[in-house]
Design brief:
heterodimer; A: mainly alpha; 2 domains; 1% strand; B: alpha+beta
Chain lengths: 305, 208
């Protein structure tokens, strides 16, 4: 019983620690801007007009799951236009919650359209976290500040209602790291980080001239076993340790810049662009905190203790 | 089956979210209970996908660079052939709005299973796109069009790709008249020693 009570108290301390309205509003802006960046860099509706042969192996269950039926590019264009308008309004903070909800639902439909002829999971295409994040923000006062119109406030207003949604968005943003670490351990164990496997990944990422833009850095690294070992250990450690940013503000000082470097290094040595990297901005503290709302160095877990 | 389960999983997320919305209006109470339900559902769904490594997008398993990289590598290469019979590589932007990162795996997995007639239709479509992109890039308008709003700030694909048709002089001058689809294979270590080391198998050829 006591264990359950303690677990419940820990749950409450973690999720319902106060957070500034400014940080929650900043998360809204970051997610909306990121989704706009992806949408405006693609032409997802045009994929609805691919020749019928591309759709032959798409199962009916996948079509129903996302309500996608090919051959309707103009309908998809209208839905995308609605998504863009909703995202712009969400970004500006105009009818923000309704717009976050509408945008999330439309992105849930549009994002898989980009990849459905091959896979129903567009996880690498940059819209995964906006779907989850915008839906979460639609449930919270995410436009109390940093919005067009409305009364000006100091940005220091805070409370649990600003805390739990931001924390959930941040948890979603941690999961790519944690789960990719778990994927590595489940499929290859600690041997994933071996210099041999790192070399193999570097060769794979740099020897196909259709994929590689930066070839010299990765191939240089591949020929140095000690650096390959360091790369494997640091990469796995980064994946598994990143979730600490949820519990420790001190760790953010190290892990957020480390994550930026991590993505830059992967880009240059392996030619992979992690499109969700800009969402690391949801961990930034964007403004002044009212007295008593700053969680201590070990994070929200002790904020209300 | 996974599609159905994943769809239901997202539907559950929406229902949990709707209950939070209703609790805010006082239609169900207490609010904290429904917020907890929503948070618990989000944690459970996302961690189930991640820990089990079964994707339920948008609850993704995020399998980046998982596993051991294989020593043997296989890739699809699509080339166009001009009127003089010369083969040319094709800038990845020619396939837009399709992403190279989906098109090539699809060509690898699904294209060989299609009936010959369907393969011809796909190849004709791709040849038309390649030739249209060639003409556009040759005229100085650049390859592809997905940078139309954001220019150089447009989001890249997950895999970076070289842009051989970035200047008109680098674009083939003769019209494309046929398309060849090859499967290339090589051993990574052998290719590291000899970059030309790769074998090619012609999967399909389509002439206009």
């Amino acid at each position: 019983m006591r264990i359950l009570e303690r677990a419940r108290a820990a749950w409450d301390r973690f999720w319902f620690a106060p957070e500034t309205a400014r940080n929650l509003a900043a998360a809204r802006i970051v997610l909306a801007a990121h989704a706009l960046w992806i949408l405006l860099s693609r032409d997802i509706p045009a994929l609805s007009a691919l020749p019928a042969e591309f759709w032959t192996e798409v199962p009916a269950s996948a079509r129903w799951r996302f309500l996608i039926w090919e051959g309707h590019p103009s309908v998809e264009a209208a839905l995308q236009a609605a998504a863009v308008i909703a995202l712009v309004l969400a970004l500006l903070g105009v009818a923000a919650r309704a717009c976050c909800l509408l945008a999330a639902l439309l992105l849930y439909h549009l994002a898989p359209l980009e990849t459905l002829f091959f896979t129903p999971s567009p996880w690498a295409k940059g819209l995964t976290l906006p779907v989850l994040g915008l839906l979460t923000l639609s449930l919270a006062p995410c436009a109390d500040v940093l919005r067009v119109g409305g009364a000006r406030t100091t940005g220091a207003a805070s409370g649990p209602e600003h805390g739990w949604p931001l924390r959930l968005v941040q948890l979603f943003a941690c999961q790519p790291y944690l789960f990719s670490g778990i994927a590595k351990l489940r499929s290859a164990g600690l041997g994933w980080a071996s210099p041999e496997n790192m070399r193999a990944w570097l060769l794979l990422a740099n020897q196909d001239d259709q994929l590689a833009v930066f070839r010299a850095p990765g191939l240089w690294l591949a020929d140095r076993p000690a650096l390959c070992a360091a790369m494997g250990i640091l990469g796995l450690a980064m994946d598994l340790a990143f979730i600490l940013v949820l519990f420790s503000r001190r760790s953010r000082v190290v892990l957020i810049p480390a994550a930026v470097l991590f993505h830059a290094a992967i880009l240059v040595t392996q030619n992979y662009a992690f499109l969700s990297a800009p969402l690391l901005l949801v961990f930034v503290d964007w403004g002044p905190r009212a007295r008593g709302t700053r969680p201590p160095d070990d994070g929200p877990a002790r904020a209300r203790a | 089956m996974l599609n159905v389960a994943s769809g239901l999983c997202f539907l559950g997320f929406l229902v949990a979210a709707a209950l939070v919305g209703l609790s805010e209006r006082g239609l169900v109470a207490p609010r904290r209970r429904f917020v907890n339900l929503f948070l618990g559902y989000a944690v459970l769904a996302s961690f189930t996908a991640g820990l089990s490594q079964r994707d339920a997008w948008p609850f993704s398993k995020w399998p980046m660079a998982g596993g051991r990289a294989e020593a043997e590598y296989s890739a699809i290469r699509i080339v166009a052939v001009d009127e003089d019979g010369v083969e040319h590589g094709i800038d990845y932007r020619a396939w837009q709005p399709m992403a190279f990162d989906e098109l090539m795996p699809w060509m690898h997995r699904t294209f060989p299973r299609l009936p010959r007639l369907s393969q011809d239709r796909v190849a004709a479509y791709l040849l038309e796109k390649a030739e249209a992109a060639r003409r556009q890039a040759r005229s100085g308008d650049g390859a592809g069009y997905l940078h139309r709003y954001l220019g150089p700030l447009a989001a890249p694909e997950f895999d970076l790709h070289p842009r051989p048709w970035s200047s008109p002089e680098a674009v083939p001058s003769r019209p494309f008249v046929s398309l060849r689809v090859y499967r290339e294979t090589w051993n990574q270590e052998e290719r590291r020693r000899d970059p030309a080391r790769a074998s090619r198998l012609l999967l399909h050829e389509h002439r206009r």
